[in-house]
Design goal:
Length: 684
C-alpha cells in the first residue's frame, strides 16, 4: 500500500468522476485527513494534472526535462505503509503480511496459516467491540477473472472471520475507473457491504479494524507459481491445502434481464449444439490473431457438422451454422449469460473460463502465456497451453507493454497457428460428456432481479445518521408509519414528545409539522444520537424543537445504559454496542409537568412499560395519542394493562411491512375519543 499527499488543493474532472483533493498545509505534520491511499488510477491522474500545471508555470523547461520530473519536483509526497503504522488509529493489517498482530512494523509470515492467530489478537485488543469492519484494499484486483477467484477464496476467509469475531462486515476499497461489472462480482456476497470507488483518506481508513492489501498483486510473492485461487487463500493467511477442491470452485450471479435477452437470441432454428467460440482476451498477448481465428472456426465447422458456432466478436467468415451475436453481447452481464446458456465453450479469455465454472458449462481454455495448471479446480474445463509456450518471450506474464508486444507478436502468431482444432474438439466433447453425466449442476449459479446497491456512505442528506449506526428495519418502518398516523393528531401549535430518535428525519418532519408555535420534545439519552438529531434539526431550520439527553422512565434520577462506540457498528434498536455501562439522567414525563401534550411517540430501545408508568399523570391530564413501535407480542399485555389505568384502548398492526405479526405497532387512544383506525385490529 502507498499513501500520498499533495502540495496544494487540486480538483480532478474526468469522464468517470469529479473530486477535490486537499493539499497539506503543514508538511512537517501528519494531516491524516489530507493523506490519500493509492488505489486505482487516481495517483497517476493527479500526477499528470500536476505535471501539466508545472509545465505551464515553467514554459522555459524543454520537453526532455519535463519527462524527467518526479513526484518531489511536483511537490507530491508518496509514503510507504510503514510510515503510518505508528498512528494509533491505523487499522491492523491481516494476512500473509501483517501489522499490530505480531510484533512491530510489517511482519512476513512463514507459517502455514497465520490468519487465526491474527484474528484472535485483533479480538483481544478490542474486547469491548461487538462489530468489526474489515477493508480489502484494491479489492481482489481490478481484473474480472482475478476478482471472481478472489471472491471464491473470500468465502473461506469469511468463515474464519465468523469464527473469531462477534460480527463483521467487509468493504471493497477500489479507486476510480472500476467497472460496474467488477462491483457486481463482489457485491453478491452477503459479508461484503460496500464497494467504494474512490481512494479514501488515511482518516477514513480509521473506521476499519483490519485490512487485507491486494495492491500490485501480480508482483506479489508466489502469484506466478500457485494456482490463482490458492494464492488468494495463501495471501489472506490461510493454508490452501486445508481447503477442498469443491470449495475452490466459483460462484456467481446473472441478472434475469440479461439471461432472458440471451435466451431469446439463442432460440432459433439453427440445428445441433451451440458452441461459443471466444478467441478474444482482454489484451493482445492472450488473444488469438484474427486470421488464425477465422481458419480455426472454419475447421471446427468442418469437423463437427452437428454444431452451430456462436461468436460475440465480428469475424470475417460466413457460414450457415455460424451465429454472429457481436451486435447483441454488449455488456459483461450478457457475456456471462451467453457463457451459461451454450452447450460448450472454446475460449482464450480467462474470465469466460471462470464464468463457465460457476455455470458448469463444458469448456476448453487455451492459455498462451500462463500455465494451464493455474486453474486446476474446474471439473468441466480442460485448460491447455500452446505448444512450446514456455519458450515464448512473455512466458508467465499476464500482459505486455505495447512497445514490447510489437517485438513479439509475430512469434505468437506462429504459435497460435500450431493449435489443432481437432484436439480442442476432442477435449470439448469429453467435457460435454462429463457434464451430461453429472447431477445437481450448476451449483454455483444464481439468477437475480437486481444487483445489491454498491455505493459510498451518503453524506449529503439533511438528516444524516451516525455513519456506523444501522437503522433497524422495524424502526425505519415505524418512522414512515408515525409520519402517516400523526397527520390528523398533530397540527401547527401541537406539543409532541418523541422518546428515542434513531432516525433524525422523523424528528425533522414532526418539528416542521408543529411549527411555528408548537414544540417537539425529543428525549434521547444516547448523547451521540442526541447531537445528531440536534444537528439535523438545525440544518433543516426546524427550530420548533428541543432535544433533551434524558431517559423518561418512572423512579430513579439516573438509569444505566451501554456506551455507544461511534467507530464500531451499532443498531438503532440497542442502547449501545459495548460492554461498558454509563449512567444517564432520568426525567419522567410526569416530572416534566407539561401543560399540554397532543402525541407521545416511543421507539425501541425505550422500555415502553416503564415510560408509561412515568407518564400516567400526563396521560390522564393531557390525553395524548400514543404511538409505540416495535413491540413484541409478549410485551403487549403489560403495556395495555399499564395504560388501562389511564383509560386507554389500543389498536395494532404488524411492525414490519412484511406483515409478520411477531412484532406490532401500537396506536393508543383515550377511551372517550371513540377512534377507529383503518387497517388496525383492536387489542383486547
Amino acid at each position: 500500500m502507498q499513501i500520498f499527499s499533495l502540495p496544494q488543493d487540486l480538483t480532478l474532472n474526468t469522464h468517470a468522476f469529479s473530486r477535490r483533493y486537499l493539499g497539506v498545509t503543514n508538511r512537517d505534520a501528519v494531516q491524516v485527513d489530507r493523506l490519500y491511499l493509492h488505489v486505482g488510477q487516481e495517483l497517476s491522474l493527479i500526477a499528470e494534472s500536476l505535471h501539466n500545471e508545472y509545465a505551464k508555470a515553467h514554459p522555459e523547461i524543454d520537453e526532455a526535462a519535463k519527462k524527467t520530473l518526479n513526484a518531489d519536483d511536483l511537490g507530491m509526497r508518496v509514503y510507504a505503509e510503514e510510515n503510518l503504522l505508528h498512528w494509533p488509529f491505523f487499522p491492523a493489517r491481516l494476512g500473509r503480511v501483517s501489522s499490530r498482530c505480531v510484533g512491530d512494523g510489517l511482519h512476513h509470515h512463514q507459517e502455514a496459516e497465520p490468519l487465526p492467530a491474527q484474528l484472535q489478537a485483533l479480538r483481544t485488543s478490542k474486547s469491548d467491540k461487538q462489530h468489526f469492519r474489515i477493508a480489502f484494499i484494491n479489492g481482489f484486483g481490478v481484473n474480472l477473472g482475478d476478482c471472481t477467484m478472489g471472491v471464491a477464496a473470500f468465502r473461506q476467509v469469511a468463515k474464519y472471520l465468523t469464527q473469531y469475531l462477534p460480527s463483521f462486515s467487509c468493504d471493497m476499497v477500489y479507486g476510480s475507473g472500476v467497472s460496474a461489472a467488477l462491483a457486481d462480482v463482489v457485491a453478491g456476497e452477503k459479508s461484503i457491504e460496500r464497494v467504494l470507488l474512490q481512494a479514501p483518506t488515511v482518516c477514513d481508513l480509521a473506521q476499519y479494524d483490519g485490512y487485507f492489501d491486494f495492491s500490485d498483486l501480480i508482483n506479489m510473492p508466489q502469484y506466478d507459481s500457485l494456482p490463482t485461487v490458492d494464492w488468494y487463500l495463501w495471501w489472506c493467511g490461510l493454508d490452501p491445502q486445508t481447503v477442498s477442491p469443491v470449495q475452490k470452485r466459483n460462484r456467481g450471479q446473472i441478472r434475469w434481464d440479461a439471461w432472458n435477452a440471451v435466451r431469446g437470441l439463442l432460440k432459433d432454428d439453427k440445428p445441433g449444439q451451440k458452441i461459443f467460440f471466444n478467441p478474444k482476451a482482454s489484451v493482445p498477448l492472450r488473444t488469438m490473431p484474427a486470421q488464425v481465428a477465422v481458419k480455426f472456426a472454419r475447421r471446427l465447422l468442418e469437423l463437427a457438422p452437428e454444431i452451430t458456432l456462436v461468436i460475440d466478436q465480428p469475424m470475417d467468415l460466413k457460414h450457415k451454422r455460424l451465429m454472429d451475436l457481436s451486435s447483441h453481447i454488449t455488456t459483461p452481464e450478457k457475456f456471462k449469460a451467453l457463457c451459461a446458456q451454450v452447450d460448450g465453450l472454446i475460449t482464450v479469455n480467462s474470465f469466460a473460463s471462470h464464468v463457465a465454472d460457476f455455470c458448469s458449462t463444458p469448456a476448453v481454455h487455451v492459455c498462451s502465456t500462463i500455465p494451464a495448471n493455474r486453474y486446476p479446480y474446474y471439473p468441466f474445463s480442460a485448460p491447455i497451453n500452446l505448444q512450446g509456450y514456455e519458450q515464448l518471450p512473455a512466458f508467465n506474464q499476464p500482459k505486455a507493454e505495447p512497445e514490447k508486444w510489437e517485438t513479439m507478436h509475430a512469434v505468437y502468431h506462429t504459435a497460435w497457428e500450431s493449435l489443432a482444432p481437432a484436439q480442442v474438439l476432442i477435449l470439448l466433447r469429453e467435457k460435454m460428456a462429463e457434464r451430461q453425466a453429472a447431477a445437481h449442476e450448476p451449483q454455483g449459479l444464481a439468477l437475480i432481479a437486481e444487483p445489491k446497491a454498491v455505493t459510498c456512505v451518503e453524506r449529503t442528506s439533511a438528516t444524516p445518521r451516525l455513519v456506523r449506526q444501522k437503522l433497524a428495519s422495524e424502526n425505519a418502518w415505524a418512522s414512515q408509519r408515525f409520519v402517516q398516523l400523526t397527520q390528523s393528531a398533530l397540527k401547527p401549535g401541537s406539543i409532541c414528545v418523541l422518546a428515542c430518535a434513531p432516525d433524525p428525519g422523523l424528528a425533522v418532519t414532526l418539528a416542521n409539522r408543529v411549527a411555528p408555535h408548537g414544540e417537539l420534545i425529543v428525549l434521547e439519552p444516547r448523547t451521540l444520537l442526541a447531537r445528531s438529531v440536534e444537528s439535523s434539526l438545525f440544518t433543516a431550520s426546524a427550530f420548533a424543537a428541543r432535544v433533551e439527553p434524558t431517559m423518561p422512565v418512572a423512579g430513579a434520577y439516573q438509569t444505566k445504559i451501554s456506551v455507544l462506540d461511534p467507530w464500531s457498528e451499532s443498531s438503532s434498536s440497542d442502547w449501545g454496542n459495548t460492554h461498558q455501562v454509563i449512567a444517564v439522567p432520568n426525567r419522567s414525563m410526569d416530572q416534566m409537568a407539561l401543560q399540554t401534550c397532543d402525541c407521545l411517540l416511543i421507539q425501541s430501545p425505550m422500555p415502553y412499560r416503564e415510560v408509561l408508568m412515568g407518564a400516567l399523570e400526563t396521560l390522564q391530564r393531557c390525553r395524548p395519542y400514543l404511538l409505540i413501535s416495535p413491540v413484541s407480542r409478549e410485551e403487549v399485555g403489560a403495556i395495555c394493562k399499564t395504560a388501562l389505568k389511564a383509560n386507554y384502548v389500543f389498536w395494532a398492526e404488524p411492525a414490519a411491512p412484511s406483515g409478520d405479526m411477531s412484532t406490532l405497532l401500537l396506536f393508543g387512544v383515550p377511551k372517550e375519543k371513540q377512534v377507529k383506525v383503518d387497517g388496525f385490529f383492536k387489542v383486547e
